[in-house]
Design goal:
about 40% helix; eight-stranded parallel β-barrel; alpha/beta; about 190 residues; 8 helices
Length: about 190
């Protein structure tokens, strides 16, 4: 069964990835319901989540990028307590814990070579994510190939430099794209 936020991400197609708190105001005014939070620390996380929630956003926090958190299952419990609606991580055990707690669970994978591509199936089986974020996202042939071999929804992220890259990723089968380029958030 698909997590409810997958449908919301598909509807907006471009998910803002907030990696600099200076872009918060721009992010708050973006269309769409979901935001990926790629910044913050254990002291600033709750105020960031509160501001985003007040604007009606669901927030998926990149657990690996929150300063002050250890890569332990308890970190996911902390993120849930702070108000995160989901997590992103490169660590399968954190993704698995997120899913156990009912949060959206996104496994982020860097496809840098054929070995990383072949390891994806094993990591996906271990983590059981709701979605997999593939980086870099500007690889439509790889996205298309992966969409043919996995039933887990794919998100394309990283190195998307314009509308053509976004359309290529979506056309290859990605359910949505994530980008920190605020010029692309309103597409």
């Amino acid at each position: 069964m698909s997590h409810r936020l997958i449908d919301a991400m598909e509807r907006q197609a471009v998910v803002p990835a907030l990696k600099d708190p200076a872009q918060l105001e721009t992010c708050l005014s973006c269309p769409g319901e979901v935001v990926f939070l790629l910044c913050g620390d254990i002291l600033t996380l709750e105020p960031l989540l509160r501001r985003l929630h007040e604007a009606g956003k669901k927030v998926v926090v990149h657990a690996d990028l929150v300063a002050g958190l250890a890569p332990k299952d308890i970190a996911v419990d902390f993120l849930q307590r702070c108000g995160a609606d989901g997590i992103i991580s490169t660590r399968p055990h954190l993704v698995r814990r997120s899913r156990e707690l009912g949060l959206l669970s996104v496994l982020r994978v860097f496809i840098i070579d054929s070995k990383a591509l072949s390891n994806l199936h094993r990591e996906s089986e271990e983590a059981r994510p709701d979605a997999i974020e593939i980086l870099p996202g500007a690889m439509p042939q790889v996205i298309e190939r992966l969409c043919g071999t996995t039933r887990v929804p794919l998100i394309a992220g990283g190195l998307l430099s314009g509308k053509a890259d976004i359309l290529a990723a979506l056309g290859a089968g990605a359910r949505c794209v994530s980008t920190s380029d605020s010029d692309l958030w309103a597409l």
